[in-house]
Design a protein that fits this description.
Strand content: 25-35%
Radius of gyration: 21 Å
CATH architecture of the largest domain: 6 Propeller
Number of helices: 7
Structural class: alpha+beta
CATH class of the largest domain: Mainly Beta
């Protein structure tokens, strides 16, 4: 019941007590499956792999094998994942998917063997909670999402077992004190994934509130800064009830808002949509980005960079969970085929919220710098990373470009 109500942290505690007492393989396999799936929701991938291996050992079936294989892939155990996927190639219903996953595991191994185009480093080494979704603010700060113990409100979010998330601010170097962003923005609900207009006078972000039915629905919010004070946020006018929206970003001189939503399939997979801001301040109805970007899986965490869009997908060929992809608008208004940014930007875990810092000061052999979020290493917590794009010799970049086509 806790699992069905999305109280994943609670479900894991129940299973830990009930699993040893289960009488049959079927019961043990079912409970291990619930624990595995719950840990996936909490990004605890090492724990998820352990429980799903138990579920497979108890003969819970092909779904358990598929889930285990995917977690092995997320944990970058590509050879183990390949062996697990191979067990499903005799299953007519799962053969095509298993063979596709085997190919992606092999591609991921090839990419990891290449000379890296980026260097990455975690900027908050001692954080024990999830920190993610950074956005540049006033050239010297990052505003981001976190579940820190001083978050607004005293309740525990039963999905995660942590505090409800707020927006926080810190020096973009990662040094100095981490502070809550603004009391007009943070509430006892979940706030996250901020994005600022270029003049830093408008803030878009996500707020997830309980509808009273036990489900949390996420909405896009807007706040304006007047005389240095952030105003009370409002929902964007095109928001509908019982639809989940999230991760707003701006492109095209701040005239187009791109975001993730489950408009076509409420409660299902997420796609990327956009709405246009008219000169009179009104918004167009959301429209879906094309199928060259949206897959049959989930597309989330778009981030804008002029006419370029970065986003994360768990379906397009990648290295594990969500991978970061890049696309940009052509002069004729069409989007280019997205390409995978590769390792080490992408990993077996979830990688997302890629932003470029054009005001960064960097040394020789570095041509770009910025930030992104990742749950790599199976830690169960998202972290914020700084990246440095390296100025590689032309022959190495040519090889990398060819491999991107493979992805």
């Amino acid at each position: 019941m806790a699992f069905e109500r999305k109280q994943y942290a609670v479900a894991i505690d129940f299973v830990a007590n009930e699993y040893p007492k289960a009488k049959s393989d079927l019961q043990k396999g079912r409970k291990a499956w619930i624990a595995g799936q719950s840990n996936i929701k909490l990004l605890e991938y090492n724990e998820a792999e352990s429980w799903l291996q138990k579920s497979v050992n108890h003969g819970y079936g092909p779904d358990a094998i598929m889930a285990l294989a995917r977690i092995q892939k997320i944990n970058e155990k590509y050879q183990a994942a390949i062996e697990s996927f191979k067990k499903l190639t005799d299953n007519p219903a799962l053969r095509q998917e298993a063979e596709r996953e085997i190919l992606m595991c092999k591609q991921a191994e090839s990419y990891k063997a290449m000379t890296p185009e980026y260097r990455v480093e975690r900027i908050l080494e001692n954080s024990s909670v999830a920190d993610y979704g950074p956005s540049l603010y006033e050239n010297q700060f990052l505003v981001f999402t976190s579940e820190r113990k001083d978050a607004t409100g005293s309740d525990i979010y039963k999905w995660t077992g942590e505090r409800f998330s707020d927006l926080y601010i810190m020096q973009k170097s990662g040094t100095g004190e981490v502070l809550k962003f603004d009391s007009a923005i943070n509430t006892s609900d979940n706030e996250g994934t901020p994005w600022f207009s270029r003049d830093m006078q408008v803030l878009y972000f996500t707020r997830c509130v309980n509808s009273g039915s036990g489900d949390d629905y996420c909405k896009l919010m807007i706040s304006r800064r007047t005389d240095g004070i952030w105003e009370e946020p409002e929902e964007l006018p095109f928001i509908k009830d019982k639809i989940n929206y999230g991760q707003p970003t701006l492109i095209e001189n701040d005239s187009v808002l791109v975001f993730s939503a489950d408009i076509e399939q409420p409660g299902g997979t997420r796609d990327l949509y956009y709405a246009v801001l008219s000169p009179d301040g009104s918004w167009s109805a959301p429209e879906k980005l094309p199928a060259t970007i949206n897959s049959i899986g989930n597309e989330k965490f778009p981030t804008g960079d002029k006419d370029t869009l970065y986003f994360s997908s768990d379906h397009w060929p990648g290295m594990g969970g969500f991978d970061i992809f890049k696309t940009y608008l052509r002069k004729d208004g069409t989007w280019t085929i997205p390409f995978n940014l590769g390792s080490p930007i992408n990993s077996g875990g979830d990688d997302f919220s890629f932003i470029v810092d054009y005001n960064a000061k960097f040394g020789a052999n570095i041509k770009q710098q910025g930030y992104f979020s990742s749950s790599r290493s199976g830690s169960g917590k998202d972290d914020i990373f700084k990246f440095y794009k390296l100025d590689l010799p032309k022959e190495k970049t040519d090889t990398l470009e060819k491999l991107k086509i493979c992805f």
